[in-house]
């Protein structure tokens, strides 16, 4: 529902409430109804430009909008940790663009962290205007809490997926254990580092990538269960989140291989770190959605700017910034950009790419694999962790 439709709906609701309380044949009642009618007319006129041709971008067509454009706007963006570097570049570009086009200053409050933790924070009261999370399951939890209206995926391009990566196997320098494929992870002498999929968003993607590697190569569910059980038998410790998993591998020296996002490995290399990694040919598309938090933007009066920013993130200009930092481009036009040609060579071609929809979507995946007593718990019981 658009901003002007919400205003009209709320005004009509107010009118109905008053009519239920006021006697129209009294002078006071008549005046109350008249004032509400005027308010409704003003709301319609200010939101539609009066004659249907004005827009918020045209101050001469809408004096109310012109006044609002001069007020500073503050947006709260809540995102999962690995997007920080991209937003460091993207946000200033949008702020400058909005200032030029609307003569309005926009500032961003930002919060980064594990996707699951960010989700809980928003549900518990962190008043995000926009959420960019690691998986749609987390966004759906915020929707179920009544903060995001149903159908948010259909309001944006690409089903609201604004950044994308694949799974990578980070090895020790020189890859001494010669780890090249998913199948290598079930060998008895390989120690695998990953987070706990019960608490970590990326760990759910890791689990799905492992399962997908068997299904996409012709194996059935029994074979997939046996393979994934062997891999988790090789996991010495399940960390709470992806950051702890990375620390266990890189700082504490645990394990022979770390399952992580490809973009994290590329970003580390760009920072001058020595990172050896393999992107298996059979892989999973790690899709990260974005959404406007309806209840909060309406409360803050920030819907117009929040929606414009989210739309901006799908433009080639913004997508190029995601791509520069290792996220896979969403469309071929961005992938062919001259500035990104050198980076494109870093993307290992994936010939067999699955996605969460192949397994029924996140609601079904969560129920089948990660709910209490589901497949992952059954695996843990088998290996007696």
UniProtKB/TrEMBL annotation:
Gene Ontology terms: biological process: sulfate transmembrane transport
Name of the protein: Sulfate ABC transporter, periplasmic sulfate-binding protein
Keyword annotations of the record: Periplasm, Signal, Transport
InterPro entries: Thiosulph/SO4-bd
Organism: Fischerella thermalis JSC-11
Lineage: Bacteria, Bacillati, Cyanobacteriota, Cyanophyceae, Nostocales
Keyword check for DNA-binding: no
Signal sequence, start to end: none
Family: Belongs to the prokaryotic sulfate-binding protein family.
GO cellular component: periplasmic space
Cellular compartments annotated: Periplasm
